[in-house]
Amino acid sequence: MTRLFHPARLAAALCLTLATSAFAQAVIVAPIAPPPPRVEVVPAPRTGYVWDHGRWRWDHGGYVWVPGHWQPVRVGYHWVPGHWVAHGPNWHWVPGHWA
């Protein structure tokens, strides 16, 4: 008789499910274009960090300004800032990331 739910198979399936859901990100969609970016005073360069400019965040039916902040540098990578992209009548947020 074969066992339908072998403990090792069940454990492997559970690990894969948890691992893939850990990398999932919410998709942010706004029905209107974001306002123009605000003018920010960029601080003097800081060793070991890169400046991530401020952005507009969609929050409960409206845009809210999020000020810029420092991102710790990842050796061998460069910072790609987050940005809004038009998709038909809606706008999708592409999060900043290291590439």
From TrEMBL:
Residues 1-24 form the signal peptide. It holds the Pfam family WXXGXW. It comes from Burkholderia gladioli. Keywords: Signal. This is YXWGXW repeat-containing protein.
